[in-house]
Write a structure and sequence with these properties.
single chain; mainly alpha; 17 helices; 2 strands
Length: about 350
C-alpha cells in the first residue's frame, strides 16, 4: 500500500490494538507464574479481541458520525446504537453507565458518577489520540469529556488514565516522537492537582522500569508493590502500560508479548500498549505474519478472544484508517483556519 506516514501510523495503531487485546485475552486474570505453568510463553494471538476492541469501535463510530468532534453525548449515542452488538461484552461500570442512559436516569455527562473503577475508558480511548495527532494536550482535554461517560467522581482517576493513554498516542504519531517524549506526554497534560493520583502512579512505575531495566525484574517488583484490589483498576493498568512501553523501547511486537505474559488485566494492557506502539512505529513495525493474519479476517465473523459466546464481524481496519485520516485532515484544516484568523488580527 502506497500510503502516507500518517496513514501507516494510524493503521499500525488500530491493528496493534486488536493484536495486543487478542494476545492478552487467554492470560487475563492470571499471575505471571500461572501463565508460565499454563502456557509457557505467549507469543501469538487468535480471535477478534475482547470488549476492549468492541468499545473502541463504538468510539470510532461516534467519531466518524460527528466529523471528529465527539463528547460524552456522542459517545453515549453510539453506545445506545450498539446494544444488540456488544451488550453481553460490557463490564460492570459500562453496564451501569448504559442502564443510566437507557432509562434516562442520567444525562451522559453525569453517567460516569458512582461507577466502580476499571480500565473501560482507557482501554478503548486510542481513537481520541489518533484524531488529535501530534497534539497531546488537545487529546487529553477532549478525552476528559468523552471518558467522563463511564468514569467520574470517585473513580475519576480512571478518566485521567484515559487522558494519559490518548495523549501518549497523539504524541506517538509525531514524526519526531521519542520514547521519552511519549512517556512525558502521558502525564504532563493531566490536571496538576485533580489528577495527582494518576500522575504519581505513572511516575513511580516509570521510575521502577528505569531502575530495573529488565522485564522480568520489573514484573516481579511491580507485583510486590503496585497491584490494586481489582485487576482492571486504571491505577494499575495505565502506569504498567507506560512502563512496559519503556522496557520494550517502543517496539510493538515485544511490547504486546510483554503485556500478554504480564498477567492481571493483560488484554487491556495489551490493547493500550499496542495502540501506543503501533502509532509510534506504524504498521511497518508490526510482524508481517501478524498483519496478514488479522487482515485475512476482515469482513468475517470471528470468535471473541475471551471465549465469550459471541461472534462479531471484523471491520476492515485499513478502511477505518482511511476514514480516521480524513478526520485528522479535517481537524487540521479547522485549526489552520483559526490560526489564519488570529494572524489577521495581528496585522
Amino acid at each position: 500500500m502506497n500510503k502516507s506516514i500518517l496513514w501507516n501510523k494510524v493503521y499500525g495503531s488500530l491493528l496493534a490494538g486488536v493484536m495486543g487485546d487478542a494476545m492478552g485475552a487467554p492470560s487475563e486474570g492470571m499471575t505471571y507464574q500461572e501463565i508460565e505453568k499454563e502456557f509457557g510463553y505467549i507469543n501469538d494471538f487468535s480471535g477478534a479481541g475482547t470488549d476492549d476492541s468492541a468499545i473502541k469501535l463504538i468510539l470510532c463510530e461516534a467519531i466518524l458520525n460527528n466529523n471528529g468532534y465527539v463528547t460524552a453525548d456522542e459517545f453515549a449515542d453510539a453506545f445506545l446504537n450498539n446494544k444488540d452488538n456488544y451488550y453481553s461484552l460490557f463490564y460492570i461500570p459500562v453496564r451501569n453507565m448504559f442502564h443510566k442512559l437507557e432509562s434516562k436516569l442520567s444525562l451522559p455527562v453525569y453517567a460516569g458518577y458512582g461507577n466502580m473503577q476499571s480500565s473501560s475508558s482507557a482501554m478503548s480511548i486510542t481513537p481520541m489520540g489518533l484524531i488529535n495527532a501530534c497534539n497531546p494536550r488537545q487529546a487529553a482535554q477532549e478525552t476528559y469529556d468523552v471518558a467522563g461517560l463511564i468514569h467520574a467522581g470517585d473513580s475519576t482517576f480512571c478518566r485521567d488514565g484515559a487522558c494519559a493513554i490518548a495523549a501518549a498516542v497523539a504524541e506517538a504519531l509525531s514524526p519526531d516522537a521519542t520514547v521519552e517524549s511519549i512517556v512525558a506526554a502521558s502525564y504532563q497534560y493531566l490536571h496538576k492537582q485533580s489528577s495527582i493520583v494518576m500522575i504519581n502512579k505513572i511516575k513511580q512505575v516509570i521510575a521502577l522500569a528505569y531502575e530495573t531495566k529488565s522485564y522480568e525484574q520489573f514484573r516481579e517488583r511491580f507485583y510486590q508493590s503496585f497491584l490494586q484490589d481489582i485487576i482492571s483498576d486504571s491505577r494499575e493498568t495505565v502506569p504498567c502500560t507506560i512502563a512496559l512501553f519503556v522496557l520494550a523501547d517502543g517496539d510493538p511486537n515485544k511490547a504486546m508479548i510483554y503485556a500478554a505474559n504480564f498477567g492481571r488485566d493483560s488484554d487491556t494492557i495489551g490493547t493500550m500498549i499496542g495502540g501506543i506502539c503501533g502509532a509510534f512505529k506504524g504498521v511497518d513495525g508490526l510482524k508481517k505474519e501478524w498483519v496478514q493474519k488479522l487482515e485475512a479476517t476482515y469482513g468475517q465473523r470471528q470468535e471473541n478472544s475471551k471465549g465469550v459466546d459471541i461472534k462479531a464481524a471484523v471491520p476492515d481496519h485499513a478502511q477505518l484508517a482511511d476514514q480516521l485520516v480524513d478526520i485528522i485532515q479535517k481537524k487540521a484544516e479547522d485549526t489552520k483556519a483559526c490560526l489564519n484568523r488570529i494572524d489577521a488580527l495581528m496585522q
